[in-house]
Amino acid sequence: MNIPCILIPALVGLICGILGYLLGKMNSKNDDSLALSLQADLDACKANTRNLNARIATLEADLAAKAKIAPQSFAAAAPTLIPFDSSLASTALGKKIKENDLKVVEGIGPKIEALLNNAGIKTWYDLSQASTEKLQSILDAGGENYSIHNPSTWAKQALFAYQGKWQELKDWQRNLLGGKE
Questions:
Q1: Source organism's superkingdom (predicted)?
Q2: Listed residue (120, 121, 127) closest to 106, CA to CA
Q3: Mind listing the pLDDT tens digit for each residue in 83-131?
């Protein structure tokens, strides 16, 4: 058996192992600086998060304070523009109309009116101030049978009713198909 044939590969393997170990040790020193850099970034992110949470808390407190004031100013901002005239509404629409009957709006029936009432929309003014997104979310919450309705024209129709513009409401509803433009 030839000893150099066995000894040479063993020595080369041993030398490569030692070199690998030494190179690994040298690179591990660089990993410590990387870990320190990452830790500094993490600390900066945590400090930023604390600042943002404090800002959110301040904004929520301001919003809560304004919400306490808003109902009083809202009541003053919503005067009746034209008193409800049942006979004028009946003449224009050809049927008896009760004040704040949401079913006057094309696309709203008794069940949708009940959904809106449960959500706090009880008057023409309330409906005229509601966004299409809010109305759609109320319908979606009511289930599949209600979510297919399109409330995009309801606020404008309700505004006509609130303002007592019955002829304009009737004319506009003639152009609607199931409450849709």
A1: Bacteria
A2: 127
A3: 788 888 888 888 888 889 999 998 899 999 999 999 999 999 999 999 9
Specify the pLDDT at position 76.
47
Q: Please return the burial class of 151, using the count of CB atoms within 10 Å of its CB with bins 0-12, 13-18 and 19+.
A: buried
Contact (CB, 8 A) for 87 and 122: no
How would you label 51-73 residue by residue, b for 16+ Cβ within 10 Å and e otherwise? eeeeeeeeeeeeeeeeeeeeeee
Q: For residue 23, what are the β-bridge partners? A: none
Q: Where are the alpha helices (DSSP H) in the chain?
A: 3-77, 86-93, 110-118, 124-129, 132-142, 144-147, 154-163, 166-174
Residues 112 and 139: their CA atoms lie apart, in Å, by 8
Give the residue-averaged pLDDT of 152-176. Answer: 87
